[in-house]
C-alpha cells in the first residue's frame, strides 16, 4: 500500500493561531496519507482540530494562522503547504474541492444557483457560457436535483437544506477534483437527508474515482463509508486504522468512549448512554501528558506526565497513542487500580464518568 | 398516511391533551402553509412523549402551539385541566410557569449580554416568589443539578461556554420555576455525539429527580427511542404512527417509520447499508397531497391512498398506525 505514491501525504502538520489569550495549537503534529480513490474518515468532537486540519490542507486558513516550518503537505508529489494565493487559486476546484457543513452559509445568497455552479467551470475550464450551462445541467442531474433547468434561475433560499447541499456538491465536483474534502457535510441535515447525501457521495466517488476526506463527529456516519479512520482529539491523532480493524479492535479509550456514547437504535428504550464526562481541554494552555487523560477512565500517573505518541499495534496499519490500550493486560490492570480507588489518577471519579 | 383519528388517546387522566390541533401560517398571495393539520395526542404525568419526523413536518409548530406561541388556529390544548387556548393573557402567563421549553440551538437561545446567574434567575425575579438570598441559593442548587459549578460559572456570559454547557444552562433556566412539563425542541441535534449523550443522560436524571413530564422532539429515531415512553411519528403535519419505542423498532407498521429506521447510521462497518426506498423531497406544506400525505413518496401507494385519508387504527395494545396498507406486524421485523 505504501509502495506506490500516495495522492496526499501530510507530515507533522502543525497549525497554530495567535489569539489574545495566547497561541492556540489547533493542529499539533498530525500525519497521514491518502491513496487515489480512497476515503478516510476523520472523527472527533468539536474543537478537536478536524476542520483546521483540512483547511490547512486546502490553504484557506484565516490570516492569524501559522503553519510550522517543519510541516509538509504533499499532493501528487508536490509540496502545497506554501502555495501563494495566485497559485492556489488554480489548485482549488481542479485538484481538490471542499464541501462545508452549513449549505446555507456556504452558498452566496444573492447569486443564482446557475451562476454559482458555472463560475468555476468558466474560470478553470475556460468554457463558454453555453457549454458551462450544459455542464451545470449535467452535474445537477448527477447529484439528483429534479428540474435542473428551473433551479438554475433560483436562489439558495428557495431550496431545502438537502437540495442546497446537493448544489454545493455539484459545485465541488464541477472541475473533476482528485480529492474531495467533506467537512461535516450532513451535520446540519435531518437523518433521512443525511443518508441520501452520504449515499450520493459514495456513488459519485466510486464513479469519478476521487479520494475523499470525510469529517464527522459521529462514528456511525463513517462506519460503512470509509476505508480508513483517524480519530482526532485536541489537535492530535489518537488512533488510526483500517475501518473494519478499528471497529473490531478499538485500542484507544477515546475511540471506545466515542463509540459508546452513540445512542443505538437496537438498544432498549431508556438504556443509559455512556457519555464522556467533562469537556475538551483549553488549547491555548501548555498540555502535559496525554491530552485525553483528564476525561479517561483508565488514566494513570504515567498518562499525566508523559505524552504518548502514535505507535504501531500488532495489527498491520493500525496505530494508536495510549499507554494502556483497551483490551490489553495493562489496560485491565489500570482499570482494576482505578476501580479500587474509585478515582483516576487525573482526579475523575469513576461513578461520575459513568453517570454524567 | 397519516391522519386524524383519536383511537390512541387515553382519556382524562392525561396531563397534557391535544386534540385536532391545526396550525396554519399565511404565505402571501392567499396561500396558506398547513404546518399542522388536525393532530391529537396526549401525555400522561411522568411520561416522556417522543415526537419524530423530518424538518418541515410540523414538530416545532406543534410544540409552540402547546405553549401558545402563537396559539393554534383551532383545536384544544388541555394542560393540567385547563383549556390553554381560552385563557386570558394574565392566566396564560401564570400557567406558563408550569410548562417550559428548551430549544435547539443552545447558544442563540441565551441572551449573550447577560450573566449566567441572571439568565437562570430571571423566572424567579419575575415572580418574586423568594427573597433574594433564597433565590440565589436556588439558582446555585439548580446549576449544580445540571452539572455546572455555580461559583465558577455564575458571573460568566454565554459566549464563554461550549454548546453542551450552554444547553445545561438552558435546562437550568427551564427548571428553576419547578415546571410540570418541559417541551424539548430538538435539544441535542446541534450537539456532538459525545455531548449529546451527556445531555440525554442529564434530561433523564432531571426527569427522575423532579418528576417531570417531557415532550421530546427530534429527527433522529435512535435519540428519541433512547428517552421516550411513547413515540409519535409525524409527517407533513399529520401523525403516521404511535407506539411504545421498543415496539416501534421491532414492529414498525408505517412505511415512513421504516424509512426513519433505515436512515439511522449504524456504527458497524460489517453491516450492509440498507437501501433507502424514499424518493423526492418533502411535498410543499402549502399544497399538501390529497388523501394520505405520504403517498407521493410511498412505495406501497395505491389509488385509495389518493382519495381517502387513513385514520389512526389500533393494531395492538399501545400501537396505532394511520395507513391503508400497514406492514404485517406479526411477522415483520424492522429493516
Care to describe what's here?
- The complex is a heterodimer of chains A (356) and B (335).
- Helix content of chain A is 35%, strand content 20%.
- Chain A contains 14 helices and 13 strands.
- Chain A has a domain at 263-354.
- In chain A, a hairpin with a 2-residue loop joins β10 and β11 (236-242).
- Chain A has helices at residues 50-58, 85-88, 103-106, 113-125, 129-142, 148-152, 161-173, 191-208, 219-223, 243-248, 253-260, 301-305, 329-341, 350-355, and strands at 8-19, 22-34, 39-43, 65-67, 72-75, 78-79, 96-99, 179-183, 211-216, 228-233, 236-242, 311-312, 319-320.
- Chain B has 2 domains: 11-98 and 179-321, Rossmann fold (3-Layer(aba) Sandwich); 109-177, no CATH class.
- In chain B, α3 (116-127) crosses α4 (132-145) and α3 (116-127) packs parallel to α6.
- Chain B has helices at residues 59-66, 89-95, 116-127, 132-145, 150-153, 163-175, 193-210, 221-227, 245-250, 255-263, 303-307; strands spanning 16-26, 32-43, 48-52, 74-79, 82-83, 99-102, 181-185, 213-218, 230-235, 238-243, 313-316, 319-321.
- Chain B has 11 helices and 12 strands.
- The two termini of chain B are 20 Å apart.
- At the A-B interface, α7, α8, α9, α10 and α11 of A face α6, α7, α8, α9 and α10 of B.
Structural class given helices, strands, pairing of chain A?
alpha/beta
Helix content of chain B: 25-40%
Please state how the strands of the largest beta sheet of chain A are arranged side by side: 7-8-9-3-10-11-13-12
Number of strand elements of chain B: 12
Helical content of chain A (DSSP H or I, runs of 4+): 25-40%
CATH H level, superfamily name of the largest domain in chain B:
P-loop containing nucleotide triphosphate hydrolases
**Oligomerization category of the chains in this entry:** heterodimer
In total, how many domains does the architecture of chain B comprise? 2
Largest interface: A-B, 51 and 54 residues
The average pLDDT of chain B is 88
What is the CATH level 1 assignment of the largest domain in chain B? Alpha Beta
Q: What proportion strand of chain B?
A: 15-25%
Shape of chain B: globular
Gap between N and C termini of chain B? 20 Å
CATH architecture of the largest domain in chain B: 3-Layer(aba) Sandwich
Taken in chain order, the helices and strands of chain A follow as EEEHEEEHEHHHHHEHEHEEHHHEEHH
Alpha carbon gyration radius of chain B: 21 Å
Low-confidence stretches of chain A: none
Given the structure, what is the number of helices of chain B? Answer: 11
The number of distinct β-strands of chain A equals 13
